[in-house]
Amino acid sequence: MKRILIAGALALAAAAPAFAADLPPPAPIPRAPAAYIPAIPTFTWTGFYVGLNAGGAFGNSSWTTPAGSVGSFSTLGALAGGQIGGNYQIGQFVIGAEGDFDWQNLRGGQTSGLCAPAIIGGCVTASNWLATIRGRVGFAADRALFYATAGGAFTDIKPSTGALSFGGSTEPGWTAGAGIEYAMTDNWTAKVEYLYASFSKATCSAVNCSAGNAAALGGFPGVAPASVGLTENIVRVGVNYKFGY
Questions:
Q1: Which residues form the domain of 62?
Q2: pTM of this prediction?
Q3: Is residue 107 part of a domain?
Q4: What per-residue confidence (pLDDT) applies to 216?
Q5: How open is the CA angle 66-71-74, to the nearest 5 degrees?
Q6: In a domain, 85, yes or no
Q7: How many other C-beta atoms lie within 10 A of the C-beta of residue 141?
Q8: What CATH code is carried by the domain that includes residue 158?
Q9: φ and ψ at 9, to 5 degrees?
Q10: Where are the beta strands (DSSP E) in the chain?
Q11: Domain count, the chain
């Protein structure tokens, strides 16, 4: 009997490795779930905004009459105002629109040629405000936006000679330029931009552009009626508050 038991035990020992090889592998020990880390949202330029701006403008005013050119001179002044607009971002491209209104003290004059003081007291062009409404197209490099812009522009052109009162009329025109805007936070952005603007010509009537002492000068009519043109180069900085989309 002992021999039979020993022989059976040896047979079982020999078969154990083969039997174990047929068994499925043990299940892996479960690991604790990793801590959830929320994804950091990507900044978007989509949304509406309002802001303020300030800067300077320099340009040129040209005067002509039916008899020919009277003069051309530089203009210079400061400006400040506000803007409102909106953007929509598609991938890295941004499209939008913006309108602004600025007070400005643009002014320039000439006291030579037909504008000489001995005849009419000098030619002067002034402008007190500037408004634009423009489209914008840009490329966003995360929080930096590089954009081009173009649209309509409006201003008051106020010509005069000598000590006579300023005339003036609101003249339409066009404007185009480019700028860079940077998002300092998710809501506050800052920008710097350049615009060129050209306007339709205003007319300086006899009331504003005749010689102050025409009778004493033998009826010299001054430079009326003069056609007065104005172009501007505008450089300004601004800050905007962007509302969420």
A1: 47-242
A2: 0.78
A3: yes
A4: 38
A5: 140
A6: yes
A7: 10
A8: 2.40.160.20
A9: -65, -40
A10: 47-65, 68-90, 93-110, 123-141, 144-161, 169-183, 188-199, 202-204, 226-242
A11: 1
State how far the Cα of 208 lies from the Cα of 220, in Å rounded to an integer.
Answer: 14
Quick one: CA dihedral 201, 179, 130, 96, positive or negative?
positive
- Specify the residue for token string 């009997």: 1
CA-CA distances (angstroms) from residue 72 to 104, 110, 153? 21, 8, 22
Residue 21 lies in a domain: no
The answer to whether the CB of 160 falls within 8 A of the CB of 122 is no
Decide: residue 152, CB within 10 A, 0-12 exposed, 13-18 middle, 19+ buried. Answer: middle
Q: Is residue 190 part of a domain?
A: yes
Structure tokens at 131: 């408004």
Residue 216 forms beta bridges with which residues?
Answer: none
The tens place of each residue's pLDDT in the chain, 245 residues long, gives: 655 555 555 554 555 555 455 556 666 676 756 665 555 558 899 999 999 999 999 999 999 887 778 889 999 999 999 999 999 999 999 999 999 999 999 999 988 877 776 556 788 999 999 999 999 999 999 999 999 999 999 999 999 887 777 888 999 999 999 999 999 999 999 999 999 999 999 988 877 777 544 443 344 456 778 899 999 999 999 999 999 75
How many C-beta neighbours within 10 Å does residue 171 have?
A: 18
Residue 182, classified by CB atoms within 10 Å of its CB into exposed (0-12), middle (13-18) or buried (19+), is middle
Query: How far is it, in rounded angstroms, from Cα 57 to Cα 75?
Result: 8
**Cα gap 61→126, rounded to integer Å:** 9
Phi, psi torsion values for 15, nearest 5 degrees:
-85, -15
Per the structure block, which two tokens stand in for 60?
């040129």
